C-alpha cells in the first residue's frame, strides 16, 4: 500500500472510531480485570486482550479510554427478520422468525466471511455498514410487531458486544421472547457466565478441528471446544455448524475427530455441515458439492451423532434437510432450505410413531407456515445420499 493510501486508511479508521465512540458504554465489571491503574484485561472473548489506554482489543471495538473500557452499545449495523432455520436452529420453534441484529467488529478475520461488511468494517476499507441508533425496547417492539418469537445476535461476533446483547435480551425475556447467539464460540468462562441467565439458544461455528487452521482465521481451537462443553453443561440449547471447505477442513480424519468430539459432549447436539461457496477473499477452493456433504454426514453418523443436517444446497442433499426420529427413522420435520414442508412432532416434542422425545425447544403447537411444493421453484425430490450407508 502506497504512503498516501496508508494515511487515507488511518484517517478513515480514526473517523470511524470517533463515530463509534458515540455508540459506547462502560464494559461490564464481570468481563474485565484491572492490571495496574489504567491497563485492563478483557474477558469478552478467548483472546483475553490486555488493553492499554488509547488502544483497542483484537476485535477493534472494545477500547481503553483513559482507564475505562468502552464497548459497543446503543446501535445496530444490520437488522433483519430471518427464518430461524437460517441461523441455523433446526430444533427450536421450526417455521418461526428470528429478529436478528448485528453490530460491528469481530475477533476473527476469516477470508470466507459472508458478513464481512459488518464484521470486518474496522479492518477492510471496502466494508461499509453505518451504525443506526436504537434501543432495546425498540428492537423488542419490532420483534413483537413482526410476530417473531426469537431475537438473536448475529452478523458480527456477538461475544464482543455482550453488554449490548444482554441489555436487549433482558427486555426480550420480559416480553416472553426466546433469545439466541449466532457465534464463533471463542468464549471465556467469564463471558459465558455473564450470558447464562439471558441466552436460551447458542449456535457455535466449529470451523475446523486443526489448531493451525484456527490460527489462520485469527483464533485457537481449544477455547471453542471449551465453550461448547460449557454451554452444554449450562443447559443452553446448542447447535453446531461446520462450513465444509474443500482442501481446508474436509479430510476424513479431521471430520472424524471433529464429530467424535461433538458426540462426546452429547450425541443429541445437532450438527449442520454447510456448503462453502467462493466469497470475500477466499476464492481458490472449489465450491462444496452435495456428495461432499453426504460423505461428511456418513462420518458424523459413524461417530454417533443422531441429528445431522446439510445446508446451503436446498433440494440437493436428500433427507439431510429433514429431522428424523433416531429410533424408528420416522420423518418428523420435512424441509426445503428454510421452508417447512411438513411437521409431525407431538405437542410434547416426541415422535408420533414410537414416542421417542426429540431433544430441542419445541412449541406445544406448531405455529409456523407450511410451504406448498408448487410454490418452491426447481424443487426436485432426490434419492437420499446416505441410503447406501445405512
Q: In the CATH hierarchy, what is the architecture of the largest domain at level 2?
A: Alpha-Beta Barrel
Rough shape? globular
What separation lies between the terminal Cα atoms? 55 Å
How large is the count of helical segments? 9
Number of DSSP E strands: 19
From the 3D structure, determine the CATH topology of the largest domain.
TIM Barrel
Quote the average pLDDT: 87
Strand coverage percent:
15-25%
Order of strands, main sheet, comes to: 8-9-11-12-13-14-15-16
Please give a structural write-up:
The structure is a single chain. This protein has 390 residues and is an alpha/beta fold. The chain has helices at residues 3-21, 116-119, 136-145, 162-174, 189-195, 211-217, 221-234, 252-265, 290-303; strands at 24-26, 32-35, 39-42, 50-51, 63-65, 68-72, 75-76, 78-83, 97-102, 132-133, 150-153, 178-183, 201-205, 237-244, 271-275, 308-311, 323-324, 331-336, 339-343. The chain folds into 2 domains: 14-72, no CATH class; 75-389, Alpha-Beta Barrel (TIM Barrel). An 8-stranded mixed beta sheet has the order 8-9-11-12-13-14-15-16. Strands 1-6-5 form a 3-stranded antiparallel beta sheet, with no helix packed on it. It has a 3-stranded antiparallel beta sheet with strand order 2-3-4, with no helix packed on it.
